[in-house]
Each structure stands twice: as structure tokens, then as C-alpha cells.
């Protein structure tokens, strides 16, 4: 099989390649095409993957491409992982958000909407190119904001685009670990929501839901990252385990205050850190070692202001482990290509799964994967306290899609003004003005 990775010069590419190197089963991926607009990063990334592959006799062949159609030709699967505007764009979103007293994080609130507005025209062109050059390929979307991007691309590709996020599986893994069940790969996860806006509502092991056992023990709740982030009392009050990104909603004022005291935003920190990494890796005898060090630094500082606002201190080494999205991606590909059935939490069209939303709304729920694609499993249910928030945010996502795909400035303003983290139409209008000024070329389609 051939896998084309769009944004193949991106930082997470070695994680995906490591999963491919571990797969020796018949019908595996044998060719990987890295596609990126940055030729220099492609060259360095190819060196990293070459170093990863040393000693692996059947390692997938890697090619590099700056021409999209060339890289897509003959692809069975396409990974989309691009960042329009780069990390500098993320830093600008954060700065604009802070200047108006709102959260500017890249997938939540203003930052997520701004990111979507400049990303959607690019991913829609990608979707059309896939449909033309590789019509039988399946697109696995990692591009943020993943729910919005997946739903927009589904307008061209239908159910052949599926979104992936590692937050749900990471949360479930840590919760099971707290119960001493970390090795149970047969646990049945019940999860419902949107991307970066969902809750674990059940964890079935041997036919019994063990989530109530966890919720009854404050000491166990606060033994893992999300438990310490939200606090045992609040999680017990909710009666469900929230995705880490809900911390921006539940503790908005606390996060904003912590952001104000930070000397640098997350985007600015990553831009500096990864800029230094690319300079170092380009000339290093072991670019893989440089990548591993940079990745560890990145994970150690993940959601640092949120943790600071909760008084958590440093991350535990166990929490720094990858959530496993590369393994989910591999299971998804094998499930579709070889009818190897798997149960995975994915971003797919609702198809009646969550009764609060229409069939075409992309939701994040457990799915059954087979040769026909990913099918949401009946029974996913939002907790009562989350229904209104999900409906409100889905409206915002739809308005962002209208703005990003069709260039409606009015829809962009509606998306900002109706987002739960933005509390004034005047602030929404000012945010939009600053975004269109700062990203003049990327947002020139708005009218």
C-alpha cells in the first residue's frame, strides 16, 4: 500500500513512521510519500526517517515531493497534517486573543476559528485534488481544528475522510491505569462529543462499567493528569471524565490569568523551539536524536498554563507518553484495507448517533471500522450538562465552515460572536478585524 503524508515535513511524521516500522503483517504500507511546501524540511525529515529505519530490512520506502499531485498519485491512504500560517500564525492568534481578553489557543475559541478560516480554503483544494488524482484513496485528517476540517472536507469526499485525535484514547489509557487496568486492550470505551469537546461516559471491562469505581475514589481520580487538572470534586460533580480541552471552558478565567503571567505564549515558545530544532537537525549527525529531545521538551511543556492555573506542577513521565494516535491511524488503515475490524474513537458523520445533532454533523464517537469505512456505534450519549455546549459549538463550527469555504465575513462574525468563550459582539468584531489585518493574504477570501 502507498501512504501519502500531506504536511510530511511536520513534527509528528516520525511517530507515524515508527508505527509503520512495527507493522510486518501482509498488506502493510510499503511506500510513504512525504509531501510538503518546504523542501528543506522534507530533506531533513527524510534523514530522520532513514535513521529510524536502520536495521529494519522491510522498512517502507520513503520519497519526498513538493508537488501535491505527484505525491498523491497511486495513494491508497492520505494523511492530512498541515499548518497554514505555521507556528508564527499560531503565535499571532494567541497574541490577538490575549489583547482582547479571550483565549487564543489554536483549536479552542478565537484561535480555533481564526486557524479554521485560513486553513479551510487550502484543505478544500486538497480534497478536490485527492478526488481527482486518487479517487479511491481514504483521507485520514489530523489537520486542526480537526472536527471543522473533517466536516468541511466531507462535503467533497463524503465518508472517505475520517478525523483522528489522540485525546480520547490517551484519557482512557490514563483512567484505566489509575484503576490498575492499564494493560487491558479489550476495554470498551464510551465517549461522546466533538473534537476537543467530549467526555468519557463509560469504561466497560469484562462486561462491567468500571468508571463508577474510579469516580468513587478521589485519590484515584487525582492520580492522573486530567484528574489533577479538573480536580476530583468537579469530575465527581460531572459524573464523567472530560477531555483535557474542556479545561478552557470550565476554568476560563483561571487559564486567562495564567496566560497573562507567562513570558511567552505557547505558539511563540514552539516557534522558537522548533526553529532551533530544524537548524540543529539539518546539520546533525543524528537528526533523530535531535527530534527525540525536541519532542520530549514539547511534551513536558504541553498545556503548561492550564496546569499552572490548577497548581499541578510538572507532568508525570507516564502522562508524557504519546496518546497513541499513530497506532489508531494504523489500525484504521488496516481495518479498511484488509477488513480487520476494530473499535476506535474517530471523527465521522453523525448518522443519528447523537440525537442533538443532524446526520451530517461530524462528531467524535466510538466507531466500528471495516472494509467499508468507519461506522459510528449506536449508544453514544452526551452527558446532560454537555448537550447545550455541544450544540452551541457545532453551530459555531458550521458558521466557520461557511466563512472559510464560501468567504462569508458575516458567517465569520457569527462564529466568533456565538462562541461560548467570547462574551461580546464588539469583542468578536474587533477580533475579526485584527485577524483579517494580521492574516491579510490568508483571509483575503472573506467578503
From TrEMBL:
Keyword NAD: yes
Ranges of residues in domain Glycosyl hydrolase family 4 C-terminal: 191-422
Keywords: Glycosidase, Hydrolase, Manganese, Metal-binding, NAD
Cofactor: NAD(+)
Pfam families: Glyco_hydro_4, Glyco_hydro_4C
GO function terms (MF aspect): 6-phospho-beta-glucosidase activity
Cofactor note text: Binds 1 NAD(+) per subunit.
InterPro entries: GlycHydrolase_4_CS, Glyco_hydro_4, Glyco_hydro_4_C, Lactate_DH/Glyco_Ohase_4_C, NAD(P)-bd_dom_sf
Enzyme class: hydrolase
Organism superkingdom: Bacteria
CDD domains per the UniProt record, alphabetical: GH4_P_beta_glucosidase
EC number: 3.2.1.86
Protein family: Belongs to the glycosyl hydrolase 4 family.
Protein name: 6-phospho-beta-glucosidase
Amino acid at each position: 500500500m502507498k501512504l501519502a503524508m500531506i504536511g510530511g515535513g511536520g513534527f509528528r511524521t516520525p511517530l507515524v513512521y515508527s508505527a509503520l516500522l512495527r507493522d510486518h503483517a501482509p498488506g502493510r504500507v510499503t511506500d510513504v510519500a512525504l509531501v510538503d511546501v518546504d523542501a528543506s524540511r522534507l530533506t531533513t525529515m527524510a534523514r530522520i526517517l532513514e535513521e529510524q529505519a536502520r536495521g529494519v530490512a522491510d522498512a517502507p520506502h520513503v520519497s519526498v515531493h513538493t508537488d501535491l499531485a505527484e505525491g498523491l498519485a497511486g495513494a491508497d491512504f492520505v494523511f492530512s497534517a498541515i499548518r497554514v500560517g505555521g507556528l508564527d500564525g499560531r503565535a499571532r492568534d494567541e497574541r490577538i486573543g490575549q489583547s482582547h481578553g479571550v483565549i487564543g489557543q489554536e483549536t479552542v475559541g478565537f484561535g480555533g476559528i481564526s486557524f479554521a478560516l485560513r486553513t479551510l480554503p487550502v484543505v478544500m483544494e486538497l480534497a478536490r485534488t485527492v478526488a481527482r488524482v486518487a479517487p479511491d484513496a481514504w483521507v485520514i485528517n489530523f489537520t486542526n481544528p480537526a472536527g471543522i476540517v473533517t466536516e468541511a472536507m466531507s462535503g467533497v469526499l463524503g465518508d472517505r475522510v475520517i478525523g483522528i485525535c489522540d485525546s480520547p484514547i490517551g484519557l482512557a489509557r490514563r483512567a484505566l491505569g489509575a484503576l490498575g487496568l492499564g494493560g487491558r486492550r479489550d476495554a470498551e470505551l464510551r465517549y461522546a462529543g466533538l473534537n476537543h469537546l467530549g467526555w468519557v461516559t463509560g469504561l466497560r471491562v469484562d462486561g462491567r462499567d468500571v468508571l463508577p469505581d474510579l469516580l468513587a475514589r478521589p485519590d484515584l481520580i487525582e492520580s492522573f493528569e486530567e484528574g489533577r487538572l479538573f480536580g476530583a470534586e468537579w469530575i465527581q460533580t460531572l459524573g464523567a471524565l472530560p477531555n483535557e480541552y474542556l479545561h478552557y471552558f470550565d476554568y476560563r478565567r483561571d487559564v486567562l490569568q495564567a496566560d497573562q503571567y507567562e513570558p511567552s505564549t505557547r505558539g511563540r515558545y514552539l516557534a522558537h523551539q522548533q526553529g532551533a530544532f530544524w537548524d540543529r537537525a539539518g546539520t546533525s549527525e543524528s537528526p533523530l536524536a535531535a527530534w527525540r529531545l525536541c519532542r520530549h521538551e514539547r511534551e513536558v511543556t504541553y498545556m503548561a498554563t492550564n496546569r499552572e492555573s490548577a497548581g499541578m506542577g510538572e507532568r508525570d513521565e507516564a502522562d508524557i507518553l504519546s496518546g497513541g494516535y499513530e497506532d489508531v491511524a494504523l489500525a484504521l488503515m488496516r481495518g479498511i484495507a484488509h477488513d480487520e475490524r476494530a473499535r476506535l474513537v474517530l471523527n465521522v458523520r453523525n448518522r443519528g448517533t447523537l440525537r442533538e445533532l443532524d446526520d451530517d454533523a461530524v462528531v467524535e464517537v466510538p466507531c466500528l471500522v471495516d472494509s467499508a469505512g468507519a461506522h459510528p456505534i449506536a449508544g453514544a450519549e452526551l452527558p446532560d450538562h454537555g448537550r447545550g455546549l455541544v450544540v452551541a459549538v457545532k453551530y459555531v463550527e458550521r458558521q466557520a465552515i461557511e466563512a472559510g469555504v464560501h468567504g462569508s465575513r458575516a458567517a465569520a462574525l457569527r462564529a466568533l460572536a456565538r462562541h461560548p468563550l467570547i462574551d461580546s459582539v464588539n469583542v468578536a468584531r474587533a477580533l475579526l478585524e485584527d485577524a483579517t489585518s494580521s492574516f491579510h493574504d490568508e483571509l483575503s477570501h472573506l467578503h
